[in-house]
Amino acid sequence: MITLGIDIGSTTSKCALLRDGSDILATSLRVGGLGTEGPDEAMQELRESSGIDLSAVDRTIITGYGRNKYEGGDGEVSELTCHALGGRLVFPELRTVIDIGGQDAKVICLSESGRMTNFVMNDKCAAGTGRFLDVMANILRMDVNDFDEVASGSVSPAAISSTCTVFAESEVISQLANGVDRADLVAGICGSVASRVSALARRAGVKPQVCMSGGVAKNGAVRRALEKSLDTEIAFDPRAQYFGAIGAALYAYRQLQQ
Amino acid sequence: MAEEVKKAEEVKKPRKPLDPNSAKYKLGKIASDAFANTIEAKKQGKPVAWVSSNFPVEIPETLGIWTAYPENQAAGIAARGAGERMCNVAEADGYSNDICAYARISLAYAKLKECPEQDVAMPDVLLCCNNICNCMIKWYENLSQELNIPMIMLDIPFNPDYEVSDAQVAYVTGQFWDAVHQLEDLFGLKWDDKKFEEVTGFSCRASRAWLEATAQAKYTPSPFNGFDLLNHMAVMVTARGKEEAGEAMETLLKEYKENHEKGESTFRAEEKYRVMFEGIACWPYLRATSRGLKDRGINMVTTIYADAFGFDYNSFDEMIRAYCSVPNAINLEKSRDKRVKLCKDNNVEGLLVHTNRSCKLWSGFMAEMSRQIGEECGIPVTSFDGDQADPRNFSEAQYDTRVQGLMEIMEGNKADRAGKEA
Q: Which of B372, B381, B404 to probe by mutation at the A interface, max A CB count within 10 Å?
């Protein structure tokens, strides 16, 4: 039985194909989320990379902010449930998911059996989200994907506000002007995101095993800062950005089982 | 299942003209008359007061002073889509957008003296009580300065203790009579004990019926949609000291009881889940916030916001204690216990918290209080950002995700309970 999950976020669209609710057959990602060509392009990429005729898919579930707008699925479910399901499929002992996406951050708590029991999301502010990192990368004229490597060279991370993206932007500009080392600035920026998100995590209640999902999961500097702040190990899987789509495909499979 | 959200079948009924004997008609008329009658009274040269919502209404009612409620007016303006326009007027005059949006709308109205979305008679005096919040004091002081009219302050400070002390009752009682004497002097009026007794009778009659009506949510399914309460409570804010309010509230109670007996409800969907709503309504998005719940079969069956305007007492002393015990004047433990009781009495399965940018007092302690309520009642809690009157602080997509997440947890809890029972 083949099921498909499509996660239409604010900045990217992700797809995942699952066989029998356990084997991840293929994934795809395209920049461009809700209201763009991103979802269709991600589907095309999935078709090409998997070589699977998508007409053979038994059920498709849509998730993410675009879940209510995208036509072509058999149903929709929130990304909260999907990140919990996707994370748990990859990490069977998982109890806490920290998802940092393009426009929001979520901390999702799972029961021993893997069911979502609680969640906390960021307030209406870009601080602590992927957007914050994008804005800072733009100021530094860097690719956000290089943050991990650059931050690893930091000796004394700079203090950057976690209150407001605009305030933090001004701080980074002044610190750049004052000659603060770029590696320390990048480490400080990643620490700022971690500081904001760890406050959410403490509110939700952190139980091991903890993992990260969403695009920011790839950023090792943020992961390490979160581990330090929460004093816990954070599991990472290269497919972390696809957990929402994988969870949607798993949700579709479970529906078919019922 | 989650994707079946949209399948929560609406029970569509043809719209009929409102029956003049129905509670909806009577309550709607009282609420709209409250503004119109005060405008008419003003034209006739009668004294008009702008009054904060938890000020002892027994004072102006006994003295025959016509009243208007800026909070109620601002809510109406916001619900009709003019919140941002009015907030912009106040902000252009230098008021920060961090200030309560009700205050900004009211201060803008004081300047413009008109707003087609909800006009009101201009006041001769301001009656301020800070048991609802301390922002009220500065808001009314500014109104007093801008309009050059007196402000009478009745100080009911936040009570850090669980019970209302005799000392607090004495303190507030002194101010009650001082406010009465100031108004007598200002307008040449005379306090009448018999009239006071009559007004307290009306107020208690309305309050008892109102509180009993909201308590009908104890039945599953609830005989009403909780969003109805947000509309009906306008009468409790503006007219609870009037005879017709009691009669209309008793009609409401009768209808809810009949609904229960017939298995009917004003909630136009299958009631799959029951939640408590915390905080002031998000008036600019009342429809969106209501639809986000109803489409998923979630009925908001109770909210302390509605019950806050029911004042039931049997003596002067009890009346003062009631005004000292309104939700925003009591400590976290007492606030929590009142809400826990509402959750338990009404079989609530989840808590939806409005983190209201306008109301720092209320929203500030909700993070901890909602955690405690969730633990005590074993229910999931989620919050969303919004504002009682400024539409710029709300995102429907973010609201929708949180509500859906809450529903999915409630759905899992139901499945767990069903599994255990089987």
A: B404
